[in-house]
Amino acid sequence: METEHWSGRRIAGVAGIGFGIVAILLLALSGDGPAYDDTAAEVREFFVDDDWRVHLVSWLSALAFVFLLLPFAAGLRSVLAAAEMPDDPIWSRLSYSGAVIAAAIGGVSAAFWEVLSQGVAETAADDTVVALARFDTVIFTGVLPWALALFVGAASVVILRSALLARWIGWLGAAAATLSVVGTLWLFAEDDEATIAYAGFIGLPLTILWVVVIAVAMLRSRRPVAAPVT
């Protein structure tokens, strides 16, 4: 039936795969962005010389978080809630909450990049430029991972407690969430290139992989999906 092709589960699956593709592209585009301890001159060089790339990253970030991650998370919430029944679906609610928070944080982070590229990095005082760049780094690598860990970790609890998906997917999510949180410990070293930060660099690709794996499973699944629980 036509409705089966465009069911909520299938829309969520397509959105999840789309998120994975755009997220990988974003990593490639922003991978050599300013580091936490860069000078004002280095920050200016990036945001002035590569302003086209900053605009693209900002636009793609909004697309990834708002129009791809949230639809995927909404569809996943329905699937998780059905698996949690008859218990109170707290884990599915926590997972969706994490996705909403992550989308908000991702939007703020992208906005700071865009602000710096819109002439601010070129004209503002050195202290202002450095402060804005560092604030963005803290948001993206120090705060966003917590929201993504909640999104992935809570969903993985349901997967591991039920027969919803293969258990290895749950363990993959648990590993991604753990590494993402551990990676934020770079804040204590005040160096986003510290050794501990590499845990987050591993956790983010694992999170993307987890989303894509579940999205493919949702597209292939023939199980009926319950309506979202409020």
Features:
single chain; 230 residues; mainly alpha; 80% helix; elongated; disordered N terminus; disordered C terminus
Distance between the termini: 28 Å
Task: List the helices and strands in order.
Answer: HHHHHHHHH
Could you give the count of β-strands? Answer: 0
Total discrete domains: 1
Described by its quaternary structure, the protein is single chain
Average pLDDT metric = 90
Number of DSSP helical runs: 9
Rg on CA atoms, Å: 19 Å
* Main β-sheet description: none
Query: Which word captures the global form?
Result: elongated
Structural class: mainly alpha
Name the helicity range.
over 70%
What does this structure look like?
Helix content is 80%, strand content 0%. It is mainly alpha-helical and 230 residues long. It has one domain (2-220). The longest helix has 36 residues, at 126-161. It is elongated and about 60 Å long. Residues 1-5 and 224-230 have low confidence and may be disordered.
